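[09:14] KT: can someone run the structure on this one? pasting the chain below
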Amino acid sequence: MVAARCPALCRARGVRAGRTGPPDGRAGGTSGGVTVASERPLVQHADLLAGLPGLEDLHLISQTPGVTPVTGVRLVDLTTEAVDEQQLLVCIAADVASWRLDALIRRSALAGAAGIVLPESTPGPTLASLHIASQLRLPLLAAPPHRILDVVSTLQRLIATPEIERADRVLRCAYRWRDGTSGPENVLADVKRELGTSPVLGDQAQINEFAPDVRTDLEVEQTITRPDGTVIVSHPVPGPSRQWLLIRLDNPPDVLVDQSTTLARLAVLHLRAWFLARRWELEQDHHQQSRLLADLIAEHGAATAEIRRRAAEMGWRLDGWHIGLYFVPPVEPGEAMRDRLAAGLRGVDIPSAVVQRGYAWAGWLTSDDAPVPEFLHRLLTRLRRCRYAMGEDTPLRIGVGRAREGPTGLVASLDEAREVALGVDSRTGGVAATDAVGIHRLVGELLGSSTARDFAQSALAPLAHDTTLLDTLATYLDSGNSVTTTAARLGVHRNTVNARLNRITQTLSIDLADPDVRLAFQLACRALDVPS
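[09:31] RB: done, C-alpha coordinates below
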Protein backbone atom coordinates (compact mmCIF):
# COMPACT_ATOMS: atom_id res chain seq x y z
CA MET A 1 0.00 0.00 0.00
CA VAL A 2 2.92 2.34 0.69
CA ALA A 3 4.53 2.13 -2.73
CA ALA A 4 1.16 2.32 -4.43
CA ARG A 5 0.00 5.42 -2.52
CA CYS A 6 3.27 7.24 -1.86
CA PRO A 7 5.91 6.09 -4.37
CA ALA A 8 7.79 9.37 -4.09
CA LEU A 9 8.05 8.96 -0.33
CA CYS A 10 9.50 5.48 -0.69
CA ARG A 11 12.03 6.61 -3.29
CA ALA A 12 13.09 9.59 -1.23
CA ARG A 13 13.61 7.59 1.93
CA GLY A 14 15.19 4.57 0.28
CA VAL A 15 12.71 2.03 1.57
CA ARG A 16 13.43 -1.27 -0.21
CA ALA A 17 10.27 -2.96 -1.38
CA GLY A 18 9.37 -6.15 -3.16
CA ARG A 19 6.06 -7.84 -3.85
CA THR A 20 4.74 -10.65 -5.98
CA GLY A 21 1.08 -9.77 -6.00
CA PRO A 22 -1.72 -8.40 -3.87
CA PRO A 23 -3.74 -10.75 -1.66
CA ASP A 24 -6.18 -11.50 -4.47
CA GLY A 25 -3.35 -13.07 -6.46
CA ARG A 26 -3.12 -10.46 -9.25
CA ALA A 27 0.36 -9.69 -10.47
CA GLY A 28 1.72 -6.18 -10.07
CA GLY A 29 3.78 -4.19 -12.55
CA THR A 30 7.14 -5.64 -13.57
CA SER A 31 10.50 -4.23 -14.54
CA GLY A 32 13.17 -6.47 -16.01
CA GLY A 33 11.05 -9.51 -15.30
CA VAL A 34 10.71 -8.89 -11.55
CA THR A 35 7.84 -7.16 -9.78
CA VAL A 36 8.96 -3.93 -8.15
CA ALA A 37 5.64 -2.40 -7.08
CA SER A 38 4.77 -3.15 -3.46
CA GLU A 39 1.81 -2.65 -1.23
CA ARG A 40 3.85 -2.67 1.98
CA PRO A 41 7.35 -1.34 2.83
CA LEU A 42 9.99 -3.81 3.92
CA VAL A 43 11.72 -2.44 7.02
CA GLN A 44 15.47 -2.03 6.60
CA HIS A 45 16.90 0.62 8.97
CA ALA A 46 15.36 2.59 11.81
CA ASP A 47 16.22 6.01 10.36
CA LEU A 48 14.01 5.23 7.33
CA LEU A 49 10.87 4.66 9.40
CA ALA A 50 10.06 8.25 10.30
CA GLY A 51 7.15 9.68 8.30
CA LEU A 52 5.92 6.44 6.77
CA PRO A 53 2.13 5.93 6.66
CA GLY A 54 1.01 5.18 10.20
CA LEU A 55 4.28 6.60 11.55
CA GLU A 56 3.73 10.28 10.74
CA ASP A 57 4.27 11.17 14.42
CA LEU A 58 7.65 9.42 14.47
CA HIS A 59 10.63 11.63 13.64
CA LEU A 60 14.40 11.31 13.68
CA ILE A 61 16.21 13.37 16.35
CA SER A 62 19.76 12.20 15.64
CA GLN A 63 21.01 12.68 12.10
CA THR A 64 22.45 9.19 12.10
CA PRO A 65 22.02 6.65 9.29
CA GLY A 66 21.18 3.19 10.52
CA VAL A 67 23.45 0.22 9.84
CA THR A 68 21.36 -2.60 11.31
CA PRO A 69 18.03 -3.84 9.88
CA VAL A 70 15.01 -3.88 12.17
CA THR A 71 13.73 -7.38 12.89
CA GLY A 72 11.92 -6.83 16.19
CA VAL A 73 10.44 -4.26 18.58
CA ARG A 74 10.88 -4.30 22.36
CA LEU A 75 9.44 -2.11 25.13
CA VAL A 76 12.15 -1.16 27.64
CA ASP A 77 13.16 1.46 30.18
CA LEU A 78 16.47 3.30 30.35
CA THR A 79 17.94 0.89 32.88
CA THR A 80 17.30 -2.30 30.91
CA GLU A 81 20.20 -4.69 30.50
CA ALA A 82 18.39 -7.02 28.05
CA VAL A 83 19.30 -5.72 24.60
CA ASP A 84 19.25 -8.01 21.57
CA GLU A 85 20.69 -7.67 18.08
CA GLN A 86 18.57 -5.97 15.37
CA GLN A 87 15.88 -4.91 17.87
CA LEU A 88 14.29 -1.47 17.95
CA LEU A 89 14.05 -0.42 21.60
CA VAL A 90 11.00 1.68 22.58
CA CYS A 91 10.99 3.60 25.87
CA ILE A 92 7.44 4.40 26.93
CA ALA A 93 8.37 6.84 29.68
CA ALA A 94 11.85 8.06 30.56
CA ASP A 95 13.97 11.00 31.62
CA VAL A 96 15.66 11.35 28.24
CA ALA A 97 17.98 14.05 29.57
CA SER A 98 19.44 11.61 32.10
CA TRP A 99 22.91 10.07 31.90
CA ARG A 100 21.13 6.72 31.83
CA LEU A 101 20.28 7.37 28.15
CA ASP A 102 24.01 7.60 27.40
CA ALA A 103 24.53 4.21 29.02
CA LEU A 104 21.61 2.66 27.12
CA ILE A 105 22.98 4.01 23.82
CA ARG A 106 26.36 2.38 24.49
CA ARG A 107 24.80 -0.94 25.51
CA SER A 108 22.51 -0.93 22.48
CA ALA A 109 25.31 -0.17 20.02
CA LEU A 110 27.50 -2.85 21.56
CA ALA A 111 24.68 -5.44 21.29
CA GLY A 112 23.91 -4.50 17.66
CA ALA A 113 20.47 -2.97 18.28
CA ALA A 114 18.76 -1.20 15.37
CA GLY A 115 17.84 2.02 17.20
CA ILE A 116 15.96 3.63 20.10
CA VAL A 117 12.53 5.32 20.13
CA LEU A 118 12.06 7.89 22.92
CA PRO A 119 8.99 9.80 24.13
CA GLU A 120 9.03 13.48 23.20
CA SER A 121 9.82 15.63 26.23
CA THR A 122 11.20 18.97 27.30
CA PRO A 123 14.09 19.09 27.68
CA GLY A 124 15.03 16.44 25.14
CA PRO A 125 18.20 14.36 24.90
CA THR A 126 21.39 16.22 25.70
CA LEU A 127 23.93 17.16 23.07
CA ALA A 128 26.24 14.57 24.61
CA SER A 129 23.65 11.81 24.06
CA LEU A 130 23.12 12.89 20.46
CA HIS A 131 26.88 12.99 19.88
CA ILE A 132 27.35 9.49 21.32
CA ALA A 133 24.51 8.14 19.16
CA SER A 134 26.04 9.78 16.07
CA GLN A 135 29.49 8.37 16.80
CA LEU A 136 28.09 4.86 17.39
CA ARG A 137 25.72 5.15 14.39
CA LEU A 138 22.64 4.32 16.43
CA PRO A 139 19.49 6.17 15.24
CA LEU A 140 17.44 7.97 17.90
CA LEU A 141 13.76 8.64 17.13
CA ALA A 142 10.98 10.32 19.09
CA ALA A 143 7.18 10.22 19.17
CA PRO A 144 4.51 11.87 21.33
CA PRO A 145 4.05 9.90 24.58
CA HIS A 146 0.36 9.28 23.89
CA ARG A 147 1.23 7.81 20.45
CA ILE A 148 4.03 5.49 21.53
CA LEU A 149 1.85 2.36 21.70
CA ASP A 150 0.30 3.12 18.29
CA VAL A 151 3.81 3.46 16.87
CA VAL A 152 4.78 0.09 18.37
CA SER A 153 1.72 -1.58 16.83
CA THR A 154 2.47 -0.12 13.39
CA LEU A 155 6.12 -1.12 13.60
CA GLN A 156 5.20 -4.70 14.45
CA ARG A 157 2.92 -4.88 11.41
CA LEU A 158 5.66 -3.53 9.15
CA ILE A 159 8.23 -5.97 10.50
CA ALA A 160 5.84 -8.89 10.04
CA THR A 161 5.13 -7.90 6.43
CA PRO A 162 7.58 -10.42 4.84
CA GLU A 163 6.10 -13.31 6.80
CA ILE A 164 2.57 -12.19 5.97
CA GLU A 165 3.36 -11.94 2.26
CA ARG A 166 5.12 -15.30 2.27
CA ALA A 167 2.14 -16.91 3.99
CA ASP A 168 -0.22 -15.27 1.48
CA ARG A 169 1.72 -16.66 -1.46
CA VAL A 170 2.08 -20.14 -0.03
CA LEU A 171 -1.59 -20.36 0.93
CA ARG A 172 -2.77 -19.14 -2.47
CA CYS A 173 -0.65 -21.71 -4.31
CA ALA A 174 -1.47 -24.51 -1.88
CA TYR A 175 -5.17 -23.80 -2.47
CA ARG A 176 -4.76 -23.84 -6.27
CA TRP A 177 -2.78 -27.10 -6.18
CA ARG A 178 -4.86 -28.78 -3.47
CA ASP A 179 -6.36 -31.51 -5.70
CA GLY A 180 -2.98 -32.58 -7.15
CA THR A 181 -4.10 -32.26 -10.78
CA SER A 182 -2.25 -29.05 -11.68
CA GLY A 183 0.39 -29.94 -14.27
CA PRO A 184 3.82 -28.31 -14.63
CA GLU A 185 2.46 -25.60 -16.95
CA ASN A 186 -0.12 -24.51 -14.35
CA VAL A 187 2.42 -24.64 -11.53
CA LEU A 188 4.89 -22.48 -13.47
CA ALA A 189 2.11 -20.03 -14.35
CA ASP A 190 1.11 -19.73 -10.68
CA VAL A 191 4.72 -19.16 -9.60
CA LYS A 192 5.07 -16.50 -12.30
CA ARG A 193 1.86 -14.83 -11.08
CA GLU A 194 3.20 -14.72 -7.53
CA LEU A 195 6.81 -13.68 -8.21
CA GLY A 196 6.44 -11.71 -11.44
CA THR A 197 9.20 -13.68 -13.19
CA SER A 198 9.03 -16.72 -15.46
CA PRO A 199 10.40 -19.85 -13.75
CA VAL A 200 12.08 -22.63 -15.73
CA LEU A 201 11.53 -26.38 -15.38
CA GLY A 202 13.92 -28.65 -17.26
CA ASP A 203 16.49 -31.41 -17.19
CA GLN A 204 20.24 -31.05 -16.72
CA ALA A 205 20.96 -30.01 -20.31
CA GLN A 206 18.28 -27.32 -20.30
CA ILE A 207 19.34 -25.96 -16.92
CA ASN A 208 23.02 -25.85 -17.93
CA GLU A 209 22.01 -23.76 -20.95
CA PHE A 210 19.85 -21.38 -18.91
CA ALA A 211 22.09 -21.12 -15.82
CA PRO A 212 25.52 -22.73 -16.31
CA ASP A 213 26.61 -21.68 -12.82
CA VAL A 214 24.11 -24.07 -11.19
CA ARG A 215 25.75 -27.31 -10.02
CA THR A 216 23.30 -29.82 -11.46
CA ASP A 217 25.60 -32.64 -10.36
CA LEU A 218 24.65 -31.76 -6.77
CA GLU A 219 20.99 -32.49 -6.09
CA VAL A 220 20.59 -29.82 -3.40
CA GLU A 221 18.87 -26.46 -3.18
CA GLN A 222 21.10 -23.68 -4.47
CA THR A 223 20.82 -19.89 -4.34
CA ILE A 224 23.39 -18.11 -6.50
CA THR A 225 24.00 -14.35 -6.52
CA ARG A 226 25.74 -13.09 -9.65
CA PRO A 227 27.97 -10.00 -9.82
CA ASP A 228 25.25 -8.05 -11.65
CA GLY A 229 22.82 -8.61 -8.76
CA THR A 230 20.81 -11.36 -10.42
CA VAL A 231 19.80 -14.14 -8.04
CA ILE A 232 19.14 -17.70 -9.23
CA VAL A 233 17.02 -19.88 -6.93
CA SER A 234 17.32 -23.52 -8.03
CA HIS A 235 15.67 -26.60 -6.57
CA PRO A 236 15.95 -30.22 -7.78
CA VAL A 237 12.75 -32.21 -8.28
CA PRO A 238 13.43 -35.71 -6.90
CA GLY A 239 12.69 -38.46 -9.40
CA PRO A 240 14.24 -40.53 -12.19
CA SER A 241 13.97 -37.76 -14.80
CA ARG A 242 16.21 -35.39 -12.76
CA GLN A 243 14.21 -32.20 -13.30
CA TRP A 244 15.16 -28.79 -11.86
CA LEU A 245 13.03 -25.76 -10.99
CA LEU A 246 14.80 -22.41 -11.50
CA ILE A 247 13.61 -18.94 -10.54
CA ARG A 248 15.54 -15.89 -11.74
CA LEU A 249 15.23 -12.61 -9.83
CA ASP A 250 16.78 -9.33 -11.00
CA ASN A 251 18.28 -7.35 -8.09
CA PRO A 252 15.68 -8.55 -5.56
CA PRO A 253 15.55 -7.61 -1.88
CA ASP A 254 16.60 -10.39 0.47
CA VAL A 255 13.02 -10.91 1.61
CA LEU A 256 11.89 -11.68 -1.95
CA VAL A 257 14.66 -14.27 -2.29
CA ASP A 258 13.49 -15.87 0.94
CA GLN A 259 9.87 -15.94 -0.22
CA SER A 260 10.90 -17.37 -3.61
CA THR A 261 12.78 -20.18 -1.88
CA THR A 262 9.75 -21.06 0.24
CA LEU A 263 7.43 -21.03 -2.77
CA ALA A 264 9.90 -23.13 -4.79
CA ARG A 265 9.94 -25.78 -2.07
CA LEU A 266 6.15 -26.01 -2.16
CA ALA A 267 6.18 -26.20 -5.96
CA VAL A 268 8.80 -28.98 -5.90
CA LEU A 269 6.69 -31.04 -3.49
CA HIS A 270 3.69 -30.76 -5.80
CA LEU A 271 5.71 -31.42 -8.98
CA ARG A 272 7.29 -34.52 -7.49
CA ALA A 273 3.89 -35.98 -6.64
CA TRP A 274 2.49 -35.02 -10.05
CA PHE A 275 5.41 -36.62 -11.93
CA LEU A 276 5.07 -39.84 -9.91
CA ALA A 277 1.34 -40.08 -10.64
CA ARG A 278 1.84 -39.19 -14.30
CA ARG A 279 4.66 -41.72 -14.68
CA TRP A 280 2.51 -44.50 -13.23
CA GLU A 281 -0.32 -43.55 -15.60
CA LEU A 282 1.93 -43.53 -18.68
CA GLU A 283 3.69 -46.76 -17.74
CA GLN A 284 0.35 -48.49 -18.08
CA ASP A 285 0.12 -47.19 -21.66
CA HIS A 286 2.86 -49.03 -23.53
CA HIS A 287 1.84 -47.42 -26.82
CA GLN A 288 2.72 -44.00 -25.41
CA GLN A 289 6.19 -45.30 -24.55
CA SER A 290 6.68 -46.76 -28.02
CA ARG A 291 5.57 -43.53 -29.69
CA LEU A 292 7.91 -41.43 -27.56
CA LEU A 293 10.89 -43.68 -28.31
CA ALA A 294 10.00 -43.67 -32.02
CA ASP A 295 9.85 -39.85 -32.03
CA LEU A 296 13.22 -39.61 -30.28
CA ILE A 297 14.80 -42.01 -32.78
CA ALA A 298 13.19 -40.16 -35.70
CA GLU A 299 14.88 -36.96 -34.48
CA HIS A 300 18.20 -38.86 -34.25
CA GLY A 301 18.38 -37.97 -30.58
CA ALA A 302 17.98 -34.21 -31.13
CA ALA A 303 15.44 -33.94 -28.33
CA THR A 304 13.01 -31.08 -28.81
CA ALA A 305 11.40 -29.28 -25.89
CA GLU A 306 8.23 -31.31 -26.48
CA ILE A 307 10.15 -34.61 -26.39
CA ARG A 308 11.95 -33.55 -23.21
CA ARG A 309 8.64 -32.69 -21.58
CA ARG A 310 7.12 -36.06 -22.51
CA ALA A 311 10.28 -37.86 -21.35
CA ALA A 312 10.11 -36.09 -17.98
CA GLU A 313 6.48 -37.14 -17.55
CA MET A 314 7.44 -40.71 -18.47
CA GLY A 315 10.25 -40.71 -15.91
CA TRP A 316 12.92 -41.09 -18.59
CA ARG A 317 16.22 -39.33 -18.11
CA LEU A 318 17.78 -38.04 -21.35
CA ASP A 319 20.95 -36.51 -19.95
CA GLY A 320 23.83 -38.57 -18.52
CA TRP A 321 25.50 -41.70 -19.92
CA HIS A 322 23.33 -44.39 -21.52
CA ILE A 323 23.88 -48.07 -22.33
CA GLY A 324 21.35 -49.31 -24.88
CA LEU A 325 19.76 -52.76 -24.57
CA TYR A 326 17.86 -54.66 -27.25
CA PHE A 327 15.82 -57.82 -26.70
CA VAL A 328 14.80 -60.00 -29.65
CA PRO A 329 12.25 -62.73 -28.78
CA PRO A 330 11.84 -65.93 -30.83
CA VAL A 331 8.21 -65.09 -31.65
CA GLU A 332 6.13 -61.96 -32.06
CA PRO A 333 6.19 -60.18 -28.69
CA GLY A 334 3.07 -59.78 -26.59
CA GLU A 335 2.09 -58.07 -23.35
CA ALA A 336 2.53 -61.23 -21.27
CA MET A 337 6.06 -61.79 -22.58
CA ARG A 338 6.92 -58.13 -21.98
CA ASP A 339 5.74 -58.36 -18.39
CA ARG A 340 7.89 -61.48 -17.89
CA LEU A 341 10.93 -59.65 -19.27
CA ALA A 342 10.31 -56.59 -17.08
CA ALA A 343 9.97 -58.84 -14.03
CA GLY A 344 13.13 -60.72 -15.01
CA LEU A 345 15.12 -57.48 -15.29
CA ARG A 346 13.87 -56.33 -11.89
CA GLY A 347 14.82 -59.71 -10.46
CA VAL A 348 18.47 -59.23 -11.44
CA ASP A 349 18.52 -55.56 -10.38
CA ILE A 350 18.56 -53.98 -13.85
CA PRO A 351 16.42 -50.78 -13.66
CA SER A 352 15.62 -50.56 -17.36
CA ALA A 353 12.50 -49.56 -19.20
CA VAL A 354 11.07 -52.18 -21.58
CA VAL A 355 9.70 -50.41 -24.66
CA GLN A 356 8.40 -52.25 -27.70
CA ARG A 357 10.15 -51.36 -30.93
CA GLY A 358 8.82 -53.31 -33.88
CA TYR A 359 9.04 -57.02 -33.10
CA ALA A 360 11.51 -56.53 -30.26
CA TRP A 361 12.01 -54.49 -27.09
CA ALA A 362 14.42 -51.69 -26.31
CA GLY A 363 15.75 -50.61 -22.94
CA TRP A 364 18.64 -48.67 -21.47
CA LEU A 365 20.53 -47.87 -18.30
CA THR A 366 21.55 -44.32 -17.34
CA SER A 367 24.28 -43.09 -15.00
CA ASP A 368 25.88 -39.76 -14.12
CA ASP A 369 29.37 -40.83 -15.21
CA ALA A 370 30.79 -43.06 -17.94
CA PRO A 371 30.49 -46.71 -16.79
CA VAL A 372 33.72 -48.59 -16.03
CA PRO A 373 34.50 -51.94 -17.75
CA GLU A 374 33.67 -53.85 -14.55
CA PHE A 375 30.13 -52.48 -14.72
CA LEU A 376 29.67 -53.82 -18.25
CA HIS A 377 30.93 -57.24 -17.15
CA ARG A 378 28.43 -57.32 -14.26
CA LEU A 379 25.67 -56.15 -16.61
CA LEU A 380 26.31 -59.00 -19.06
CA THR A 381 26.29 -61.50 -16.18
CA ARG A 382 22.95 -60.20 -14.92
CA LEU A 383 21.46 -60.25 -18.41
CA ARG A 384 22.44 -63.91 -18.77
CA ARG A 385 20.73 -64.62 -15.45
CA CYS A 386 17.65 -62.77 -16.68
CA ARG A 387 17.67 -64.74 -19.93
CA TYR A 388 17.90 -67.99 -18.00
CA ALA A 389 15.05 -66.92 -15.69
CA MET A 390 12.83 -66.30 -18.74
CA GLY A 391 12.84 -70.05 -19.39
CA GLU A 392 13.79 -72.29 -22.28
CA ASP A 393 10.55 -71.45 -24.10
CA THR A 394 11.75 -67.85 -24.54
CA PRO A 395 15.35 -67.94 -25.84
CA LEU A 396 15.94 -64.20 -26.08
CA ARG A 397 18.78 -62.69 -28.06
CA ILE A 398 20.10 -59.69 -26.14
CA GLY A 399 22.40 -56.96 -27.47
CA VAL A 400 24.23 -54.33 -25.42
CA GLY A 401 25.45 -51.06 -26.97
CA ARG A 402 28.38 -48.88 -25.97
CA ALA A 403 28.04 -46.27 -23.22
CA ARG A 404 27.26 -42.92 -24.85
CA GLU A 405 26.31 -39.49 -23.51
CA GLY A 406 23.13 -37.49 -23.97
CA PRO A 407 19.97 -38.18 -26.01
CA THR A 408 21.93 -38.55 -29.27
CA GLY A 409 24.18 -41.05 -27.52
CA LEU A 410 21.12 -42.96 -26.30
CA VAL A 411 19.82 -43.39 -29.86
CA ALA A 412 23.27 -44.44 -31.11
CA SER A 413 23.68 -46.98 -28.31
CA LEU A 414 20.23 -48.44 -29.02
CA ASP A 415 21.13 -48.83 -32.70
CA GLU A 416 24.33 -50.65 -31.73
CA ALA A 417 22.45 -52.91 -29.35
CA ARG A 418 19.94 -53.72 -32.09
CA GLU A 419 22.67 -54.73 -34.55
CA VAL A 420 24.33 -56.93 -31.94
CA ALA A 421 21.07 -58.60 -30.87
CA LEU A 422 20.11 -59.42 -34.45
CA GLY A 423 23.54 -60.94 -35.10
CA VAL A 424 24.18 -62.81 -31.86
CA ASP A 425 24.00 -66.62 -31.98
CA SER A 426 21.86 -68.25 -29.30
CA ARG A 427 24.40 -71.08 -29.22
CA THR A 428 27.00 -68.63 -27.82
CA GLY A 429 24.85 -67.64 -24.86
CA GLY A 430 22.39 -65.25 -26.51
CA VAL A 431 23.89 -62.16 -24.84
CA ALA A 432 26.57 -60.00 -26.45
CA ALA A 433 27.98 -56.49 -26.24
CA THR A 434 29.10 -54.30 -29.13
CA ASP A 435 32.74 -54.56 -28.08
CA ALA A 436 32.58 -58.38 -28.16
CA VAL A 437 30.48 -58.86 -31.27
CA GLY A 438 33.52 -59.89 -33.33
CA ILE A 439 34.28 -62.70 -30.92
CA HIS A 440 30.73 -64.01 -31.07
CA ARG A 441 30.74 -63.83 -34.87
CA LEU A 442 33.98 -65.82 -34.95
CA VAL A 443 32.60 -68.49 -32.62
CA GLY A 444 29.37 -68.67 -34.59
CA GLU A 445 31.23 -69.22 -37.86
CA LEU A 446 33.38 -71.89 -36.22
CA LEU A 447 30.35 -73.76 -34.88
CA GLY A 448 28.75 -73.73 -38.32
CA SER A 449 31.72 -75.34 -40.05
CA SER A 450 31.62 -78.96 -41.21
CA THR A 451 34.84 -79.69 -39.32
CA ALA A 452 33.25 -78.68 -36.02
CA ARG A 453 30.16 -80.80 -36.62
CA ASP A 454 32.20 -83.86 -37.65
CA PHE A 455 34.28 -83.58 -34.49
CA ALA A 456 31.19 -83.08 -32.33
CA GLN A 457 29.38 -86.11 -33.72
CA SER A 458 32.45 -88.28 -33.23
CA ALA A 459 33.42 -87.04 -29.76
CA LEU A 460 29.90 -87.14 -28.33
CA ALA A 461 28.83 -90.39 -30.00
CA PRO A 462 29.10 -92.45 -26.75
CA LEU A 463 26.47 -90.13 -25.18
CA ALA A 464 24.24 -89.85 -28.23
CA HIS A 465 21.46 -91.95 -26.70
CA ASP A 466 21.69 -90.44 -23.18
CA THR A 467 20.24 -86.95 -23.38
CA THR A 468 20.45 -86.53 -19.59
CA LEU A 469 24.23 -86.84 -19.62
CA LEU A 470 24.51 -84.65 -22.73
CA ASP A 471 22.41 -81.91 -21.11
CA THR A 472 24.44 -82.16 -17.90
CA LEU A 473 27.75 -81.86 -19.78
CA ALA A 474 26.60 -78.84 -21.83
CA THR A 475 25.13 -77.08 -18.79
CA TYR A 476 28.26 -77.75 -16.70
CA LEU A 477 30.58 -76.32 -19.37
CA ASP A 478 28.33 -73.27 -19.96
CA SER A 479 28.13 -72.64 -16.19
CA GLY A 480 31.83 -71.97 -15.79
CA ASN A 481 32.46 -75.53 -14.53
CA SER A 482 30.43 -74.80 -11.39
CA VAL A 483 28.67 -77.83 -9.91
CA THR A 484 26.45 -75.60 -7.76
CA THR A 485 25.27 -73.48 -10.71
CA THR A 486 24.74 -76.59 -12.83
CA ALA A 487 22.62 -78.20 -10.13
CA ALA A 488 20.51 -75.04 -9.80
CA ARG A 489 19.94 -74.77 -13.55
CA LEU A 490 19.05 -78.45 -13.89
CA GLY A 491 16.96 -78.50 -10.72
CA VAL A 492 18.83 -81.43 -9.16
CA HIS A 493 21.13 -81.98 -6.17
CA ARG A 494 24.87 -81.29 -6.35
CA ASN A 495 25.61 -84.94 -5.63
CA THR A 496 23.53 -85.91 -8.66
CA VAL A 497 25.61 -83.59 -10.85
CA ASN A 498 28.87 -85.04 -9.50
CA ALA A 499 27.65 -88.57 -10.17
CA ARG A 500 26.69 -87.68 -13.74
CA LEU A 501 30.05 -86.00 -14.37
CA ASN A 502 31.85 -89.12 -13.20
CA ARG A 503 29.81 -91.22 -15.64
CA ILE A 504 30.54 -88.73 -18.44
CA THR A 505 34.30 -88.75 -17.90
CA GLN A 506 34.34 -92.55 -17.73
CA THR A 507 32.17 -92.97 -20.83
CA LEU A 508 34.14 -90.44 -22.91
CA SER A 509 37.52 -91.24 -21.33
CA ILE A 510 38.33 -87.55 -20.86
CA ASP A 511 39.69 -85.32 -18.09
CA LEU A 512 37.46 -82.29 -17.53
CA ALA A 513 40.20 -80.67 -15.47
CA ASP A 514 42.09 -80.04 -18.72
CA PRO A 515 41.10 -76.57 -20.11
CA ASP A 516 41.67 -77.67 -23.72
CA VAL A 517 39.35 -80.63 -23.23
CA ARG A 518 36.66 -78.43 -21.69
CA LEU A 519 36.88 -75.94 -24.58
CA ALA A 520 36.72 -78.66 -27.23
CA PHE A 521 33.69 -80.36 -25.71
CA GLN A 522 31.93 -77.06 -25.02
CA LEU A 523 32.23 -76.20 -28.73
CA ALA A 524 31.12 -79.73 -29.61
CA CYS A 525 27.96 -79.39 -27.49
CA ARG A 526 27.13 -76.05 -29.10
CA ALA A 527 27.82 -77.35 -32.60
CA LEU A 528 25.17 -80.04 -32.04
CA ASP A 529 22.79 -77.53 -30.37
CA VAL A 530 22.79 -79.47 -27.12
CA PRO A 531 20.54 -77.42 -24.76
CA SER A 532 22.20 -76.05 -21.62
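[09:33] KT: thanks! The chain has four domains: 43-159, 162-282, 286-437, 448-527.
[09:34] RB: yep, looked fine to me
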